[in-house]
Design brief:
Rossmann fold, 8-stranded parallel beta sheet, 1169 residues, 37 helices, 8-stranded mixed beta sheet
């Protein structure tokens, strides 16, 4: 019979009255009295003043009081029930239990929480199996009324009691005089606040009910596993579990999950309905676990409790409480220490001798002798220039300007762009003669067409939305001026073109302009402005005007960075508003978005994980454009976008809206995604045809290309393999931890928080890729150093292109040093720190709370304790710390930049990076921290160009806009530049920007590009990312996909092409069918983490384009050992080559060969003399 829970509230002293009933019943039992259901009801009615029909109490409360009375009776040291031999005690307990009333009434709460306390005889058997001692710390996670815990109290153990039901917890606390917690026992290991782990656990969990999940047939196993996880090594756990919890039972899965953590030592199946007096007829299993014991469990079956007594008494004694043995770290090859080379190192800031500077030349203000630029329009445009490969020589096809100088170097266009002619212009810029002399015909053509574009308006009228980031078509709105995009490559002179466009408007009385770029380029802007006759003082940084104040400059050019544009203060003051206050709503001046690709993702991005919000600086740039409809917008970037959605900032090009094929920006982006690279090529050519776009590049004629492959030594292979094994261990540990913390249900395998799982796996794969990229770069250093020395012997100047400097790792290492350690500093920044940093900061350790959502599905969310603090999973933390300890034994390899400086010294290496400090070796061989000032990169570039330093190591952060080519005006012009592409990274735009540091206009000799690779075939994966992005970039910026890579790379290295995808699918099927000798399906899935089989065993994942084209190459590219990597990539690279690849000519020629061009046909290269 089940009594419904009544909604009446009990009086405040109800718990006290209920415990008074328990004490009264215990007194009766001690005196040998008998208790039946009628006497129990009378006692309750007397205590509460009314019967259970009035709702003051229920029979469930009466049974809890009766159980508490038994606990009080057993806790009495003089209790006759527990005197004598085990046989005598057991017989008295059995006789005592038979005399108690049967619990025939159940409440809804009891059923929901499965509150079936352990009968007194079975509880005593469990306690006997536990062998409780006075020095024990006893944990009972589901303590109920204390039927199990009371035996620990009698033995003198320290008790850790937990019970979620508040009424039962109150009775337990009063009866045993202990604090009782109310945690979810499934996570008891993480919620215990005690520093000491329990040495003994007695547990009778709910078998099929869970706090968060409701009905859950694995609930008992979850509670048991949590208790075992909290148990100290050598401790004992005695559990009462259902008969299905066995290797052959229906809960075999959960049994095996528990046994993986701690195997049971003894299993006794007890038949005969031992729970009959507590209202249920189930049989149970008594399991004994000794943490640290290994072996096959003893399994017994007892027909009843009497038969179980002898089996319990025969249970082996407990283990000694000893810490687990330490496992020695794996042996790895250790590199011999590099001998300390005492090279006199010159400080960057040391005095360099007094030099008398020549007085500056007086520069006059912009003169007023500006005149309109006249030119002749060709009704029939000139045909494209000489075509070689995928490029055509550029020449002004539509106009001819008299008296203008040619560009210092030859320019080219892609064939696709050269086939499209600009429209006939009518605009005449207003420029001074000095400015005209400083500009080439290519630059003047751009100024003319920019003015022509700015003379038009977009179709329709618009008003900005409330947020200011979108334009809405509005009949009563405003006209918006059309913008212009300069996509010229390095060497064309985009800065001078921008200065000329500003000067044209300056001469037309629009003497306010805004120049937005990245950091450190204000000097470049001033150089270009003064070259046309302006004053350097005309360009002022916005930092001269504090945030929240007005810009007091009457006329001039405000220079600011994209970071400054997005900056705001808590009181709503922002740089954007400061600019708008200065310009006014009717502003018609020029706004230059230099390096406009920095506004990428202005419209947000959409992926399989959902839609991400737009970038703040991209949105700030869009809001500035939308707030000033009459402004003349100029976009400038040689790498305008590597993805079509990055064009969302170009709102003034008329790519969408009225008069176009796309009503909204989202429709345009969707069409570009669906159309692929071909659609991007069309957009680029159409923009040129409308006169809104120009994209020329410096010719690569004379540029040489000499790849360098480093063959890994046996010692390096051993190091690589050791790290690959470590990452495989971390991956397996990550999968276990996801189950431990509840992101994935350990028993069913179902994901309970897809976002958290995706985030954890993404962080793992990202850290893994960064690590192996850095490791391979460091392993290349012996070949790089040797090649640099050869170039220096040829009297060449050397550039080394990097994507990372290790500054973040260095800063963390320095912050961990004490003052004494800093004084005797000896640290080495290594790629290994990337791995350890991931474990410390990215490895998931936050415990999750499971609950049932409204749709009935199980979900998980981060867990907090009663004080609102995050709950951390102790097992996850222990696994993480163990991994860190093992990794510390692996050899450390210095980062590439540090190794380069250590070998050649700071007096020969010009570091042009974003590092604010670095560790250098002084004259005594010791280490010291050297700070780099804000202008350090400028000085280093100058030292390299002057020839005082022969090597320049640069990254994007420090080199954007810098010229390091053999400029005819510098002292080192006679030295040819050998440009080593050591590390391209994953940012396509950064890689392309780096190419332009050594190949620029006005150069005496073109550079030689030397890409560095290793014979580790997994490195193809890193190269593939760059090539795929360069194809899209070439389509967007040059109107032809092949132009993005400047033909420095083989297209067959693109592992995300259709050919590569087909090859990978074939390889997957061969793997699935067991036809590969190099690796088995199980080993491949374990190494890469890819799941290629569905629940039915079919090969379902092999045909997924995303997996085949991207994910597989990610995971196969880094984690396998060298031998496995070579097997996989050797096959896939051969199979991914197209059967019929069209012939192509490249501008770059092989070095040290008497050739002019390279000719590639069907994957093989032939030389043309």
């Amino acid at each position: 019979m089940t009594l419904p829970q009544l909604a009446f509230s009990q009086s405040q002293d109800a718990p006290t009255r209920l415990f008074a009933v328990a004490r009264s019943l215990a007194h009766l039992l001690r005196n040998g009295g008998m208790i039946n259901r009628q006497s129990l009801k009378r006692t309750m009615t007397q205590a509460f003043g009314e019967d259970d029909a009035a709702g003051a109490w229920s029979m469930r409360d009466a049974y809890d009081a009766l159980e508490t009375a038994q606990v009080l009776h057993l806790a009495d040291p003089q209790s006759p029930l527990l005197a004598g031999t085990p046989d005598d005690i057991f017989q008295r307990l059995r006789q005592f239990e038979r005399a108690l009333p049967t619990q025939t009434y159940r409440s809804e709460k009891q059923v929901d929480l499965q509150q079936f306390s352990t009968p007194i005889s079975l509880a005593w058997l469990a306690a006997m199996a536990a062998r409780c001692r006075s020095d024990d710390i006893l944990l009972e996670p589901s303590a109920g009324t204390g039927m199990l815990a009371v035996h620990g109290a009698r033995a003198g153990a320290r008790l850790l009691l937990n019970e979620q039901d508040s009424a039962r917890a109150d009775l337990l606390s009063r009866s045993l005089g202990q604090i009782v917690t109310g945690h979810d026992a499934e996570h008891i290991q993480d919620l215990l606040t005690t520093e000491q782990l329990p040495t003994l656990v007695l547990i009778n969990p709910p078998f099929s009910r869970s706090t968060g999940r409701g009905i859950d047939r694995h609930a008992g196993a979850r509670h048991l596993r949590g208790a075992l996880a909290s148990l100290a090594h050598g401790g004992r756990c005695v559990a009462i579990m259902p008969t299905s919890f066995s290797p052959e039972g229906s809960a075999a899965l959960s049994y095996n999950i528990v046994a993986e953590l701690v195997p049971p030592r003894v299993e006794i199946t007890i038949l005969g309905r031992p729970y009959a007096k507590h209202g249920t007829g189930i049989d149970v299993r008594l399991l004994v676990f000794d943490k640290g014991w290994v072996g096959e469990p003893e399994r017994h079956v007892a027909g009843d409790l009497e038969a179980a007594l002898a089996l319990v008494l025969a249970i082996p004694d407990r283990l000694d409480l000893q810490p687990p043995p330490l496992v020695p770290p794996p042996a790895v090859a250790v590199l011999s220490a590099r001998p300390v080379i005492n090279i006199p190192a010159k400080s960057l800031f040391a005095p360099m001798g007094v030099q008398r500077l020549a007085p500056p030349s007086r520069v006059a203000a912009v003169a007023n002798d500006a005149r309109p630029i006249t030119y002749m329009v060709r009704e029939e445009p000139l045909a494209p220039g000489e075509t070689v490969g995928i490029y055509s020589a550029w020449r002004p096809a539509r106009i001819a300007i008299d008296g203008v100088s040619r560009h210092p170097d030859d320019l080219v266009e892609s064939i696709a762009m050269a086939s499209v002619f600009l429209p006939v212009p009518r605009y005449q810029p207003l420029l001074q003669d000095r400015a005209v002399r400083a500009l080439s015909e290519a630059q003047l053509e751009t100024i003319i067409y920019a003015g022509e574009a700015h003379a038009r308006d977009l179709v329709g009228c618009f008003s900005a939305n409330l947020a200011g980031d979108r334009l809405i078509e509005d009949r009563d709105g405003k006209l918006y001026r059309t913008g212009f995009f300069i996509a010229d490559g390095t060497g064309v002179g985009k800065g001078r073109e921008a200065a000329g466009i500003i000067l044209d408007q300056w001469n037309r009385a629009n003497r306010r302009a805004i120049w937005i770029s990245i950091a450190d380029l204000i000097e470049d802007a001033r150089r270009d402005w003064t070259a046309l006759g302006g004053l350097a003082i005309d360009i002022q940084p916005i930092s001269n005007f504090p945030l929240g104040t007005s810009i007091t400059m009457e006329s001039g050019i405000i220079f600011l960075t994209y970071a400054a544009l997005r900056s705001a203060r808590h009181d709503t003051a922002s740089r954007l508003q400061q600019l708008l206050d200065w310009t006014g709503e009717d502003f018609a001046g020029v706004i230059v978005f230099d390096e406009s690709h920095a506004m990428a993702h202005a419209g947000g991005t959409e992926s399989d994980f959902g839609k991400a919000q737009g970038s703040e600086q991209g949105l700030a740039g869009v809001r500035l454009q939308n707030a000033l409809p009459r402004a003349r917008i100029l976009y400038m970037s040689a790498t305008g976008a590597a993805r079509p959605d990055n064009l969302s900032y170009a709102v003034r090009l008329g790519l969408w809206g009225p008069g176009t094929a796309f009503a909204t920006r989202d429709m345009f982006m969707k069409a570009m995604e669906e159309g692929g690279i071909a659609a991007l090529e069309v957009v680029c050519r159409d923009l040129k045809a409308m006169g809104l776009y120009t994209a020329r590049a410096l010719s690569f004629a004379g540029v040489e290309y000499e790849p360098l492959e480093h063959a890994l030594t046996p010692d390096q292979i051993s190091i690589y393999d050791a790290y690959a094994d470590s990452w495989s261990i971390i991956h397996r540990g990550l999968r276990d931890v996801l189950g431990e913390i509840g992101i994935v249900d350990r028993i069913s395998g179902k994901t309970q928080n897809a976002r958290a799982r995706g985030s954890a796996l993404s962080a793992f794969e990202s850290a893994k890729l960064r690590f192996f990229s850095s490791l391979l770069v460091s392993l290349k250093m012996p070949s790089l150093i040797k090649a640099i020395e050869q170039e220096l012997a040829l009297d060449n100047a050397v550039l080394v292109q990097l994507a990372s400097t290790g500054e973040a790792i260095m800063d963390r290492r320095l912050s961990e040093l004490s003052a004494q350690e800093r004084a005797m500093m000896d640290i080495q920044v290594s790629p290994k720190e990337t791995l350890i940093d991931y474990l410390k900061n990215g490895f998931p350790v936050r415990q999750m709370r499971v609950f049932r959502a409204d749709d009935g599905a199980m979900r998980a969310e981060p867990m907090t304790d009663a004080q609102g603090n995050p709950v951390l999973c102790r097992q996850a933390i222990a696994a993480r710390d163990e991994l860190i300890e093992e990794l510390c034994a692996l050899p450390a390899i210095p980062t590439a930049l540090d190794a380069l400086i250590a070998h050649f010294g700071t007096d020969r290496v010009a570091e042009i990076t974003g590092r604010s400090r670095r560790i250098v070796t002084d004259t005594t061989g010791g280490q010291k921290v050297e700070r780099r000032g804000a202008r350090a990169n400028l000085f280093e570039v100058q030292a390299f160009q002057d020839g005082r330093k022969s090597i320049a190591a640069f990254s994007l952060a420090g080199s954007t806009g810098r010229s390091m080519h053999s400029d005819r005006g510098c002292s080192s012009a006679h030295k040819r530049r050998a440009h080593f592409l050591l590390e391209l990274g994953f940012r396509i735009l950064s890689a392309v920007q780096g190419f332009g540091r050594s190949h620029r206009t006005n150069q005496l000799t073109p550079p030689v590009y030397r890409p560095l690779t290793t014979d580790c075939r997994g490195e193809r994966r890193f190269l593939s990312t760059i090539i795929r992005g360069l194809e899209a970039l070439g389509a967007l910026t040059r109107g032809q996909r092949q132009t993005g890579s400047q033909n420095l790379f083989d297209p067959s290295d693109n592992l995300e092409s259709d050919y590569a995808r087909d090859a990978l699918v074939q390889w997957f099927h061969l793997l699935y069918e067991g036809k590969l000798r190099s690796v088995s399906l199980a080993d491949f899935q374990d190494i890469t983490g890819l799941e290629l089989c569905d629940e039915g065993g079919g090969c379902w994942n092999a045909c997924r384009p995303f997996t085949a084209g991207s994910t597989a190459s990610w995971r196969c590219g880094s984690r396998p050992r060298i031998a496995s990597s070579r097997n996989f990539w050797g096959w896939s690279r051969t199979a991914s080559r197209p059967r019929a690849q069209p012939a192509r000519l490249t501008w770059a020629s092989r070095r040290s060969a008497p050739t002019k061009w390279n000719f590639c046909l069907t994957g093989s290269c032939a030389q043309i003399l």
